[in-house]
Queue: 2 jobs
Job 1
Amino acid sequence: MSHLRPLLGWSLSLLLLAPALQAATSPQLLRVYFHDRKDVRALAKSGADIVRHGDHWLEVVVPGDDEVSTQSTIHIQRILSRFDKQEVLVKNLDSLLDQFQGRPDLGVYHTVKEAHDELAAYAKQYPQICRVESIGKTFEGRDIEALVVGPQGAKAAGKPKFMFCGAHHSREWISVEVPMTLAKKLVTGYATDPATKALVDSRITWIIPVLNPDGTNYSQTASKMWRKNRRKNSDGSFGVDPNRNYGYQWGGLGASTYPDSDTYRGEAGFSEPETAAIRDLARREHFAADISFHSYSELVFWPWSYSDDHIDAAHETLYKKFATDMAAINGYTAEKSSDLYASSGDFDDFMFGDTKACSFTIELAQTFVPAESEVPDICEKNSNVCLWVMKNLEDAFPRMAHTPPASGTADGFNVQVTLNKDLYPDDNASSVSAVYSTADGSIASTELPAVAGQKAAFSGMIPAKAKAYHFEYKASDGQTVRWPPYRDFDAPASPQQRVAR
Ligand code: 0X9
Ligand code: ZN
């Protein structure tokens, strides 16, 4: 058919599109085919919600009249008419949720209240290992609730922190279920599973199952395909897309300026309570790694979203490896977030770009609200991805590399460290301290001088009385860097083990 396109493409596509779109009072799911990625970019820019893609096709939600209207929908329709073939995959997306007709408890899905009640019950039953914290209040006065799992009070100091959240987008109900499953696994597994206990005792995990409770409640009770939050915009329309409102590279590609669009970016970066809450939390807590769950597409994304530009090669190599490892657990595909289209103001760009967290977005499932029977499997696999992140990414982007003790005497053992100039090209230090603790609990340190003729390498001997050690140096910005950030290395046990092999 491709040779006919120049003649027939436009008129044919307009004919095909017209009836479906003109009559659209319910949200529809369309599949459209493209040849030129310029059209995809234009579609993303128009504020269309592109949910899934192949090499030459993509699936897009065309909003219903009762959700968003006029301006943005007309614009989306105009761009869609450039695509030369379209299929209506789901004529009325609301009907996906007919399975919950007359079931206000939404079956296996948590309503917002059920999710928050469950977090409260965990905090009551397991106060030694979790608490509920509100990280902010929404327009409708709901708390944005987090379950903070791990040692509480003073015992929390110095532990690596992780964050897992769902429901940036209201209709993506499955994204609530994965964080809820993780919460359940951590708090109920504590008493019965030694590996879970070890993980909970050594880490702080912020679980925010419903980041956008106003929108999620609206989707669950009123307008099923609702995506955004519930801000009342200046033009009388409702909602800002929280995943276009983060203040890192806000206002660029793939985010709409139309308030009634499903991807409306808001009036300014962090104008919304949901994104401001995450901003304040993340800047305060300094997460090592995090995941934001969405649906759907079965993808694991790494930054950047805002641009086709790549992050530096050293970080990207690691991101790609981690995302691929995660995708091996849930069976999804790992890709750079902007691979099909760029979208600005999103969560993981902010988390990585501003706070340096190793941050991912996962698109769960093959539809917004999978059948109830599919939910346990999705939750099992993806909560396992969270556990993998907690186990493996406390030091995702290490500041240093360490050559383990290779030689020693009765007096001590030799160590060598190298600054990780690939990941941190600006890092410099004139010397590095090895800080060690001894059997009697005292702490001491010894200076490791630079190795002659080598770039950013330092070596020296740590005394035999050391039991555990880490390294510290003053970076060029005057900050003291500790590496590894959250733990110590164990010193070799005996002089024999310190002798060169
Ligand atoms: O558009 C979004 O915010 C996410 N997709 S969704 O269908 N759940 O709305 C994707 C976020 C990642 N960004 C890009 N792929 N550009
Ligand atoms: Zn989403």
Job 2
Amino acid sequence: MANKISKIGVLTSGGDAPGMNAAIRAVVRTAIYYDLEVFGIMRGYAGLVEGDIFRMESKSVANIIQRGGTILKTARSKEFLTPEGRQKAYNNLKKHGIEGLVVIGGDGTFKGARAFSSEFDIPCIGLPGTIDKDIDGTDFTIGFDTAVNTAVQSIDRLRDTADAHDRLFVIEVMGRDSGYIALHSGVATGAENILIPEKKTNISEVLTSLSEKQRRKKLVNIIVVAEGGDFGAVELSKMITENIPGLEVRVCILGHIQRGGAPTCMDRLIASRLGYTAVECLLEGRNNVFIGIRNNNLHYIPLNKVTKHEDGVSDEWLKIVKILAS
Ligand code: F6P
């Protein structure tokens, strides 16, 4: 393996996602295995601009594989969006002799890396880390599996109380513009309806189906709503209450609870594999790609080809939802 670089940096940026720590650990330990010096950059691009950079050792990442959040912290930096901010960031990297960067985050993080690497001679490798699973070209993003399992556990609990009281629960989950958390958690919990941004909501269909359920005394219902969809949970519950008197409706917005917690085994595995591969990429001289996993194979997608959630949700899944959620 051609070892052209000797010092690398790693950062996490954008919304934190469970498994980011496992990815940091893999980057640090793999770098050390290959005799590289590795530096942690605090608070994403903000720390890069401010020079908040420190040398990491193997023990810096001890006992973190199971922890949610990110030991490097994260931020959304406005200054890095400017050429002046990126120049400062470059100067700070040069000061430490850092020759390659691993950036862990979502679409916004990759955009930053793309701008940076087009202006300066610092190769950047992106690892998809977001609970939203909204990056095309990869079957997995670090954090999605944990977030969706947290949603599943919460919805199961809500169904217990819904069942006890014969109530309808409208549950809003995260995902920004993506409906994957809603779709997966909704199918896995047997939700009676799932509303996602990828499919326009036919509100009269939703109301008619609920009226019909009320008529046949099926009063326990779960509707999972993606936050980026046509209707928020509060709005939808109001419409249901106004249009279907007699239905007892409650709302639960799961919110940031979905971002925390110990990463699942799946997220730890993905993060470890991606973190290890990122260092190999830098050593092989790969430049400005993000690493995706498709059908269990690694893919290297140029950062300038990253698209955000244009793949959409397959028609088959939409059909499954319709058939099972009746
Ligand atoms: O991108 C991750 C995410 O949790 C989205 O699902 C959500 O819309 C957003 O971040 C929330 O952002 P913040 O933590 O800044 O409120």
